[in-house]
Write a sequence for this structure.
């Protein structure tokens, strides 16, 4: 693992994706051993899937317990039926929760029929605060620079709320939903401020398709046009990249 120099976020380029997954799963396990009642912030998507696989393995080996842990996920689609296999709730059950059984798992429960999504969002933010905030937040970065579903235009002070999904985000989700018309147009997401309140942020980006957004995250002006740039203000953030995702970071920043 090599650390980039002179970049605005502590950035680690790993030899393989598995190395980053192993390091982050190990950090989460260490946190749970030191503080069994820890509050974990979790993300769905391709980026963290191997971290969850490693955590399931550690749990199966008896090396970590989630019995007193609480989790909060970043986001959830709005308007799907409860139990729909395409909800992030189902995804989390399949990839982590069913295996490790945390004491309490939270996602914005915004399934149809729904009276007031705005009220769900407000309650979610309140629950996050009442739990004492997030000890460690796992994050991926969307191709348009979103974190959670904080699409371009999301401000630094935004909190958990209903959002309209960006066209690029919806097109990306066609791989799950089959065709664009099936992809929800709205979601509930933790806000940028809700995410930045986490005591640690651990960000993963793998593969060549992430190279451009990684470059923008590290080098573009900090602004709502690319919400991932707000990560640069955080006091304890680490970014893990594989070689392909680090491709557009200057060679001078990456000592061999
Ligand atoms: C998704 C999710 C985010 C996720 C990001 C990156 O749409 N809303 O929580 O971190 O986009 O996803 P992936 O890791 O699959 O590239």
């Amino acid at each position: 693992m090599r650390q980039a120099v002179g970049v605005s976020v502590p950035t680690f380029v790993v030899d393989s994706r598995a190395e980053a997954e192993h390091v982050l799963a190990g950090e989460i396990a260490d946190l749970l051993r030191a503080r069994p009642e820890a509050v974990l912030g979790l993300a769905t998507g391709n980026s963290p899937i191997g971290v969850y696989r490693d955590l399931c393995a550690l749990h199966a080996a008896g090396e970590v317990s989630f019995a007193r842990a609480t989790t909060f996920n970043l986001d959830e689609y709005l308007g799907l039926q409860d139990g729909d296999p395409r909800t992030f709730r189902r995804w989390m059950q399949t990839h982590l929760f069913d295996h490790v059984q945390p004491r309490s798992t939270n996602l914005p429960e915004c399934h149809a029929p729904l009276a007031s999504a705005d009220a769900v969002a407000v309650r979610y933010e309140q629950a996050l605060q009442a739990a004492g905030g997030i000890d460690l937040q796992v994050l991926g970065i969307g191709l348009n620079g979103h974190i959670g579903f904080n699409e371009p235009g999301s401000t630094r002070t935004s909190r958990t709320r209903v959002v309209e999904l960006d066209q690029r985000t919806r097109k990306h989700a066609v791989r799950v939903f089959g065709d664009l018309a099936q992809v929800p147009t709205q979601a509930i997401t933790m806000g940028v401020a809700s995410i930045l309140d986490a005591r640690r942020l651990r960000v993963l980006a793998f593969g060549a398709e992430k190279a451009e957004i990684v470059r923008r995250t590290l080098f573009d002006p900090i602004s709502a046009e690319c919400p991932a740039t707000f990560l640069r203000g955080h006091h304890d953030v680490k970014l893990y990249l594989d070689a392909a995702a680090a491709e557009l970071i200057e060679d001078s920043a990456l000592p061999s």
